[in-house]
Structures are given as C-alpha cells and as structure tokens.
Design brief:
Elements lengths: L5 E4 L28 H4 L3 E5 H4 L8 H18 L2 E6 L18 H20 L4 E5 L4 E2 L7 H18 L4 E5 L8 E2 L4 H10 L6 E6 H6 L4 H10 L3 E6 L18 H13 L8 E4 L14 H18 L3 H10 L2 H13 L4
Parallel strand pairs: 1-2, 1-10, 2-3, 4-6, 6-8, 8-9, 9-10
Antiparallel strand pairs: 5-7
Helix pairs in contact: 3-4, 8-9, 9-10, 11-12
Length: 346
C-alpha cells in the first residue's frame, strides 16, 4: 500500500542560530509568524512544547492558559494544521536542574508533576492526542547521586499518574542516552517500551525514535524503529542525522549516512507506518553559517530526501532481496543495495 506521508516539525527548528559557544547569528523571526510557513513548506503537523502554545505559562492562571491555548487552536484551524504532540519543557526551570520526576527534592518532583498536568490540559485544549516526555535531565552527572531503582519507580509512577489524570491522552517517551545529563535513565527504545508495558495502560504509552538519539547510544535508528513497531509502540519519529558519538547535532536527514537513512525509510515503509495518520517528524537545525530570515532550507532538504528515499524503498526489488537472503549471499545484497541507492542500472 502506498502511504501518503504527512510531515511535522517544531517551531524551534526555525531558529536564530545560537549555540553553546556563541550568540545568535541571524535576525530573530517572530514565533507567531512561523505557523504560516508550514503549509508552504509541505508540512501539516506542528510539534509543540507547552510554552510554545502558552508562553510564560508558569505565571498564568488556568483561565489565562486556556484562553491562550484557545488562540493557538484557532490558528491551527485557520492554517489547516494539526498539533502532533505537546511536550512539557522540564529542563529550563530552576526546579529541574537535578531532574524533575527523579529529583532528590520532593518540591522539585511536585513542580514537575504540576507542569505535566498543565501540559496535558494544553494538549487537550488544542485537540492534541499526545504528550511527549523527553526526559532531558532525568539522569545523573555521577551515578552515586541518585538511587537508580527509585528513579525508575518514580518515572513509572509519573506515567501512571498522567494516565489517571486524563483517560484519553497518550504518552510518548522520547529516549536519549545523554545530554544534558551525563547518563540518562531511559536511553533507548527498549527502556521506553519496558516502561510502557509496566504501566497501568500500556496501549496509551508509546515511544518517539529520533535518529540522532539512537546513534548517540551507538544503535541503528532503523532497528530502534523496528523494535517499537514490533510492539505497536512507535508513536512518532524525529528524523535527522548525526556525525558520530558526540553532542546532539540534528543534521539534515540523510546528510551523514545515506544508507542508514534509507534503512529507516525502508523499515517505516515496509511496516505501514503512516497508514494510521502517524507523522514523519523532522528535528533538524540549520547550519550556523546559513544566512537569511527565515531559514528553512534544512527543512525542505530533509523532507525532499525522505521522499526521494521513499521512492528508493518502493522500487527496491523485494524478490531479488529475498533471493539473496535465502542464499545468504550478503555480498550480492550489499552491492545491489548500494547500486540501487546510487541509481546504477545493470
């Protein structure tokens, strides 16, 4: 079945080019002007942090939060856009410097839970079915700092609390092995899926696989996606690329390892990802040297590369591949795959 893919990205992917080692290098592009770009670029879905929907929400009343969320909901309808997920931003606040859900301080854990409740409220207010938990600081800088078993128990308790708080919301866990923490507690899809099965309603707990995060764990992103798909737990993907085991780079999809990118597309295509409305999410950063305002070529390039690799996946000779597999002639299979990606004809 040919899948008509839908694409999403978050407004943070149109940035002003700051990094930890220097200031912004491009003129700021107003946040509220980004929404009008989506459809023009071929994107239907919007990834949100809670404060992308409601800026400065910490100082607002429930009524004020609902009013601002209502404005965004109206904007989405007017632009013909769909909210893919809302994620609580739990890595900037003072209460989260040692983690939120796994902090050693009860007051910090209380703050994280209250922020998560507001995130669910915001998601429902904009007709969004899922929240994403990127557990950015849920880990340690030194392993003796926390009791790891207690930390996992606290994460599971938080998931169950959230499932109880809203009987329809889905929770998508986005694993990452490090950064900003030295070592994170949920580094891989396996950890996320295990937490899902341990929860009180595992059908509403899924995972988001980001290409770069899997590479940072020294894993193949397509295998992580396949594992989640085998358990019907792939809520979404964040496609990008990564040059080695270093900081999270969010490079253009396919820009470092084209063959690995092909295998990700192949896994998604062969398993019907997208037939239930799932989005192809991008999480890519423009090069710091790129000029202009707004800077969007990285989004266009990554989307175009995905669609090019979809064509390669759909014209991949499955009968020939199966023949090579049966014969265990992996040399021939590799050569065929490389020639196919390069467009070399016999």
């Amino acid at each position: 079945m040919a899948i008509n893919h839908r694409f999403s990205f978050g407004p943070w992917n149109i940035s002003e080019g700051a990094d930890p080692f220097g200031p912004e290098v491009r003129r700021a592009f107003a946040h509220d002007e980004k929404w009008a770009l989506y459809k023009k670029l071929g994107f239907d879905g919007v990834q949100f942090h809670d404060d992308d929907v409601v800026p400065n929400l910490g100082g607002l009343s429930p009524a004020q939060i609902a009013a601002k969320a209502g404005q965004i909901s109206t904007m989405l309808r007017n632009e013909g856009l769909v909210p893919e997920f809302v994620a609580p931003r739990l890595w900037f606040a003072e209460q989260t410097i040692d983690g939120g859900y796994t902090s050693n301080r009860e007051s910090d854990r209380k703050y994280a839970w209250e922020r998560t409740q507001r995130c669910v409220d915001i998601a429902r207010a904009i007709n969004c079915k899922a929240i994403v938990l990127w557990l950015a600081r849920e880990g340690t800088y030194i392993r003796e700092a926390k009791n790891a078993r207690v930390a996992y128990e606290r994460l599971l308790a938080l998931i169950n609390q959230t499932l109880d708080y809203d009987r329809e919301i889905e929770i998508w866990i986005e694993p990452k092995p490090n950064e900003p923490t030295d070592l994170a507690y949920v580094p891989t899809a396996g950890h996320a899926v295990a937490l899902a099965y341990a929860s009180k309603d595992h059908q509403r707990v899924k995972t988001v696989i980001e290409s770069a995060h899997a590479i940072l764990a020294n894993l193949d992103p397509s295998d992580e996606m396949a594992f989640a798909l085998a358990h019907q737990k792939l809520g979404s993907v964040h496609l990008n690329d990564q040059n080695g085991l270093k900081y999270d780079q969010d490079k253009n999809f396919g820009s470092v390892n084209l063959r690995a990118a092909f295998n990700q597309v192949l896994v998604l295509e062969e398993n019907g990802y997208g037939t239930k409305g799932e989005f192809i999410g991008l999480d890519v950063k423009a090069m710091r040297t790129q000029a202009g305002c707004p800077v969007v070529d990285h989004l266009k390039a990554s989307r175009a590369m995905f669609l090019h690799l979809v064509e390669k996946a759909r014209t991949y000779d499955r009968a020939l591949v199966e023949k090579f597999r049966v014969q265990r002639d992996y040399e021939a299979l590799e050569l065929y795959t490389l020639r196919h990606l390069m467009g070399v004809k016999d």
